[in-house]
Design brief:
By secondary structure, the chain is mainly alpha-helical. The chain has nine helices and no strands.
Length: 182
């Protein structure tokens, strides 16, 4: 049986930090020592991979974004194209973000630090494009505009849920109503 490839030191540190942040609810409160202990590494291993804690936290933010995208893809992959799949995509995106308060915490601090704004915009545009293609397949007019509006509303719902630390059913329903009626 073939062994899986070894996890790089950087990946081990980032995975350890994601696990710690999930348990504690915060990524900003994590120390290098905590992350290294969780990863079974030492501070030298950390400093050989990241120039400082800020670079590490930004990399961790992208690990979180990748996990959200992965959960979204997993949720909708087996669904047939159509309105239920679009609804599932929007709700899954909100759920995946709500499950990671530490991601919103990092995005609030590092989201506007270059080159992150461009990367965030690229991710959001990717989500909007996915929605646009689904809307076009449904024959919706103005699919590109509607998709951008849906993403904007979805981001606002996710921020409100982060702040409340729980789902906001009324906001989610308004989001889904907008999807259904535009």
């Amino acid at each position: 049986m073939t062994q899986p490839p070894p996890v790089s030191t950087a990946a081990a540190l980032l995975n350890a930090a994601a696990a710690l942040a999930a348990r504690t609810g915060s990524a900003l409160a994590l120390t290098v020592e905590q992350v290294c202990a969780e990863a079974g590494a030492d501070a030298q291993a950390f400093s050989s991979q990241f120039k400082d804690i800020d670079e590490f936290r930004q990399a961790l933010m992208w690990v979180g974004h990748d996990a959200v995208r992965g959960e979204l893809i997993q949720a909708v992959t087996q669904q047939k194209p159509g309105l239920p799949r679009l609804q599932l995509a929007l709700v899954s995106w909100c759920d995946a973000n709500l499950a990671r308060p530490w991601l919103r915490e990092l995005a609030a601090v590092y989201g506007n630090t270059p080159p992150n704004p461009e990367k965030v915009r690229s991710r959001i545009n990717g989500f909007a494009l996915m929605l646009q293609l689904e809307l076009e397949a449904l024959g919706r007019s103005r699919a590109g505009t509607v998709a951008k509006l849906l993403v904007g509303i979805t981001v606002e719902v996710a921020v409100a849920e982060y702040e409340a630390r729980k789902p906001q059913p009324e906001m989610r329903q308004i989001l889904l109503n907008f999807l259904e009626h535009t």
